[in-house]
Amino acid sequence: GAGVSQTPSNKVTEKGKYVELRCDPISGHTALYWYRQSLGQGPEFLIYFQGTGAADDSGLPNDRFFAVRPEGSVSTLKIQRTERGDSAVYLCASSPRLAGYTGELFFGEGSRLTVL
Amino acid sequence: AQSVTQPDIHITVSEGASLELRCNYSYGATPYLFWYVQSPGQGLQLLLKYFSGDTLVQGIKGFEAEFKRSQSSFNLRKPSVHWSDAAEYFCAVASRNAGNNRKLIWGLGTSLAVNP
Question: What is the pLDDT of residue B101?
Answer without folding.
Answer: 60
